[in-house]
Amino acid sequence: MRTLLRAALLSLLLPACRPDQIEHLSNTKELAVEAENWQVKRIMPADLLRATRWGGDSLTNTADRELRRILSEKLQAGGVAAALPYCRPMTFPEVESVAKALQGSLSWVSPRPRNPDHQAALTPAELVPTDTTRRVARLSAEEFTYQRPVVLNDALCLRCHGTVGPDIKPADYALIQKQYPQDQATGYKVGDAMGVWRVSLKRPGVAELYTMKTRKIMKKRKPLF
């Protein structure tokens, strides 16, 4: 009796499983890639240092770009008097947004600063005249650091940091000295290293950046028609 019942059930199921009635998924490759992206990956110390460099580059490049953009607008609108209060890229919204996403902070220091709060003794190796030099380090299990030179690459900056007379108008330099009596940040020329960017990053932010940067991204398929 059981044998007859099994045979009857099998006869009912077999027509429902014919190959021509099976619906095949069209996005199996995308699903495989997405599944791999969600797998827990072991991040090695070298990977975290690589992500520290990525994060430092992102934060300092954002600061460089926003500083040039805002100072250009202010100088055009009202000269040095209008631009002087805005030479603080760490406080710009775009920079703060990137720093928050990376769980990091940005600062700059110089042996010849305008603001004495940014005074720091730096070695010649740290003040190389190229902003492609990077230094990354892991200070502890949870803290990473990044550093690269701040290089005067835009002649626009000479209006505040060049030589008094040829580049900086005496009246403008009087404004600078009024706000920064201990100013040392003049006499530079294009290509000079003025100091260094310093970035401090936390491990969760570095690990998240590494995970996102190494995710596989599927290329969009071209439509057939």
Automatic annotation (TrEMBL):
Start and end residues of each Tll0287-like domain: 94-200
Domain of life per record: Bacteria
Pfam families, sorted: Tll0287-like (PF11845)
InterPro entries: Tll0287-like_dom
Protein name: DUF3365 domain-containing protein
